[in-house]
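stage 2 :: seqdesign
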């Protein structure tokens, strides 16, 4: 044993420190002393007779001893709940639905980045050069408006927040563009 460490074993549970087992001998002594002093004062001032005071001290000591012996057997915390991992499309769709809209009801940046990356790839297949970054115009812009519509071009190039309905319309237009191949 290292010189700086102490053996704080609880006695009933070897290797478990007393504070972790839920009791200590010092606490037991303090409880008995406090009960004795209070009962002695009650007996001196005539609230209790001495026989009842002794019985109360013995009952408090017995309860404290029984409580301290049983505390190590009862788990002090709930075990962690088992993780329920469900694979498949249902969990992916649920995750996608929750991650698309933020707490303000706007489309999250992450979802918008993914739609912009998809749009960049689909528009490149149709000869429209666009970096996929918000704020940059599509080249040629008029052809892009004809293919996916003015609202979709605005959603893809805007630096402002996007509402879910506008994103839904944009994704619908991109799906139609993908089918046109």
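stage 2 :: out
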């Amino acid at each position: 044993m290292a010189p700086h460490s102490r053996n704080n074993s609880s006695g009933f549970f070897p290797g478990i420190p007393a504070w972790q087992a839920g009791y200590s001998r010092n606490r037991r002594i303090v409880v008995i002393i406090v009960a004795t002093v209070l009962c002695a004062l009650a007996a001196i001032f005539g609230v209790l007779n001495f026989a009842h005071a002794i019985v109360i001290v013995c009952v408090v000591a017995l309860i404290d001893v029984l409580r301290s012996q049983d505390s190590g057997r009862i788990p002090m915390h709930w075990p962690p709940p088992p993780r329920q991992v469900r694979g498949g499309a249902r969990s992916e769709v649920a995750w996608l639905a929750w991650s698309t809209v933020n707490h303000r009801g706007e489309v999250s940046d992450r979802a918008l980045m993914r739609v912009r990356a998809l749009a960049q790839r689909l528009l490149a297949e149709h000869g429209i050069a666009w970096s996929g970054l918000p704020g940059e115009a599509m080249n040629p812009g008029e052809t892009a408006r004809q293919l996916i519509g003015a609202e979709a071009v605005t959603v893809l190039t805007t630096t402002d927040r996007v509402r879910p309905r506008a994103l839904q319309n944009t994704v619908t237009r991109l799906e139609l563009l993908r089918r046109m191949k």
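stage 3 :: structure notes
- Residues 134 and 160 are 9 Å apart (CA to CA).
- The chain has two domains: 18-70, 106-179.
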